[in-house]
Amino acid sequence: MSNLQFQDFSLGANEPSQASGSQGLSGRIGDSPFTGAGAESRSVPGKNFFSFQYYQQYFDVDTDQVVSRLLSSMVPRFGSNFIVDHVQPIPDLYGPFWVCVTLIFSTAICGNLARYIATSGDVLNNDYSSDFRLVTGSSTIVACYVILIPFALYSLLWYRKSEVQYSYLEIMCAYGYSLTIFIPVSVLWVVNWPLFRWLLILVSVILSGSVLCSSIWPAVRNDRSRMWSLMVVGSVLILHALLAIGFKEFYFDVSHPARTGEKVPPDAELPGTVTTAVFSNASHSEAVKSILSTTIHGEKAVKKSETRERKRNLISHEIVTNKSLETEGLGKIS
């Protein structure tokens, strides 16, 4: 018993090898479609998938993580993968949610401001009113872009059985943060200079689109069809550009309506031709009114004369009848 020795065995002896093996692009086929390879460390036992407590884990991020992801989504780096370097293994929904909400309101507010600036000083078009439909329209566009396109992209990667499988939340997180650059751009779009607006679109699409393409390319580059891989990455960039162009065209470029039916201020001085036309129209309407009134009075006079004539005929007929009766009565008496 005196020669007994105790030796400690560490339970985490295999952790370095597991950690080194987990460093890579993402999980393989068979991982959780919503959480990816990091689902085991972030799973919430006993929580329903449709409960708020389940999604609370995706809002558990600190300020440093959110700021780092915001900046990294706008500034591409050579050889960097946004999903691997900044999103995994903890994708969040807090940053994308507030990015989308801020973009919706900034686009609507700045779009109304741009329309107000473009229509100010126009005497014939001074009845400006804000359009709340810009808020609902931009919210629909942003929601469809952040929710539907990542789902379609995740479905394509799953269907093609790509070697690298990003989870749906990882792709949606990347797409949500990729809209960050459009928030300051929407403010600068207020400047009513078409060339400057197109330059902003070009710069913003190249910067944020490069971040998205560099994240999606590792998942499709080893596909059996290189053409399909290029089409996927090209579609990502084209859809990103269409979103920016749509914001510019429908929210900031003001199309002046036709001049028909516009209001003229009461103190505005009209040209001579317009004044003559107004007076001629007024005299014409008065003439029409006088003709109508004369016609109506004439019809009434005719009716009155006809009525009087009928009464006279009736009276004369009664007189003749009475005389004939009197004559017959006198003849019988005699």
Describe this protein with a few key phrases.
334 residues; mainly alpha; 2 domains; 12 helices; 0% strand; rod-shaped
What does this structure look like?
The protein is mainly α and 334 residues long. The chain has twelve helices and no strands. It has helices at residues 15-22, 39-42, 52-55, 63-74, 82-87, 94-119, 133-159, 168-178, 182-188, 194-220, 226-251, 272-333. Helix 6 (94-119) packs parallel to helix 8 (168-178), helix 7 (133-159) packs across helix 8 (168-178) and helix 7 runs antiparallel to helix 11.
Describe the structure concisely for a colleague.
With 334 residues, this protein is an all-alpha fold.
Number of E-state strands:
0
Domains (count) = 2
Report the structural category. Answer: mainly alpha
> β content, as a range?
under 5%
Query: Describe the biggest sheet?
Result: none
Question: Quaternary arrangement of the chains shown?
Answer: single chain
Would you identify the regions where 5 or more consecutive residues have pLDDT less than 50?
12-26, 256-261, 273-279
Number of helices: 12
Mean of all residue-level pLDDT scores: 75
> What is the distance, rounded to the nearest whole angstrom, between the alpha carbons of the first and last residues?
182 Å
Helix content: 55-70%
Shape designation: rod-shaped
Helix-strand sequence:
HHHHHHHHHHHH
Radius of gyration (CA) equals 42 Å
